[in-house]
Amino acid sequence: MLRLLCALVLVGSVGATTGERPMGTPPNIMLITLDDVGIDRFPSYGVHPVPVRMPVMEQLIAGGVTFDRVWAMPSCSPTRASLLTGRFPSRHGIMNQIGPGDPTEPQLDPAEITIPKVLPAYRSAVIGKWHLRSAGNPTTHPLACGFTHHLGSMYNVGANGYFHWRRYVDGTFAIENRYATTVTTTDALRLTQLLPQPWFLFVNYNAAHAPFHVPPPHLHTYGSPSDEITQFRAMLEAMDTEIGRMLAGVDLDTTLVIVLGDNGTPRPVTDGPWSPDHAKGSLYEGGVRVPMVVHGPGVGQGRSDALISVVDVHRTLVEWVGGNFQAQDSISFVPQLLDPSTPGARQYLFAEKSNDQAGGATGPGHQRAISDGRWKLISDNFGQQFFDLSVDLVEVNNLLQAPLNAEAQVAYDDLLQALTTFP
Asked: Which of 83, 251, 342, 397 is 20 to 30 A away from residue 275, measured at CA?
């Protein structure tokens, strides 16, 4: 582990001095999603008074670019679909978490232009959780969506937990009794050796999604906690340890690494600063604001306050390696990778969900949020809520409960008008 941490710092220092996007041989790409991890549970964001112990993430942060204002969707399936397609949920049709037991649930349309389809020079694979297929659809769905291989779970690991779950290999499953977080890492490392370079690995850890549990003791330092909040912390540290093992097995001089959360922290393990009602599944900051760190050759060092949406990863990767960009809603953050102090090109953050998948963007359950970084408007079944995030990050003071002052009124009118353009 110490060798890996030293290597991360050294590679980050080298990348910071280049000042330009790397040319020549395209880098390998490792896109890592952390399941149910908001900024309140990630190092260096300073949101929670007791940070989770994640030393590998801390070293990635020290050697790369950390983005402070990133929005995902409120739940995993819409985020993953938007990440791969560069399109908002109203366009690709995945408006909420896909229920694995309902064959009427939507799935990601294989005709969508996903990241692997616009990286023709790359061999690609999904490792870990997929969660973009509904029941009854082909178990080879990840392959139909552009990937060469899929090794991992089709959904969450399920009620039987991380030590007894269905592991799929290119459409065929077997019961797996090894710890899911460890298996994901081992599978990723195996594919880095089997796939010709350059490769694109979409590594989706099931952790730290429920069921909450105590991981194998050699992976964490939290002992044997019985409460779910501490178990959640132990699961995160165990995942951090396994990510360290994975990164130790790749050449960081030739690999672009992106780590981000897929939505906010779940209600049962939210203990501040947000209330459980403002956690995963909601359009509040606790539901949509997620950590993101990028590390690799040519990437600078520091923090960026640019507005970044999960849909922006698509165009950024394509631009970084010189592929054929086609994503509809994606905006590149390549300038911020080169120099984190560069102002971002995105003017507004946008997120949406629907409690009625079939109704989608036209149904009564459609809910939306928009922000310019300071001011935020939520429009949902209950009306509208308007917040000043600069003084109310936890969103408890709905400014619409009283007459707006002149500055707030201008901001509200602007967001209300902008909301008509999304998606």
From this structure: 83
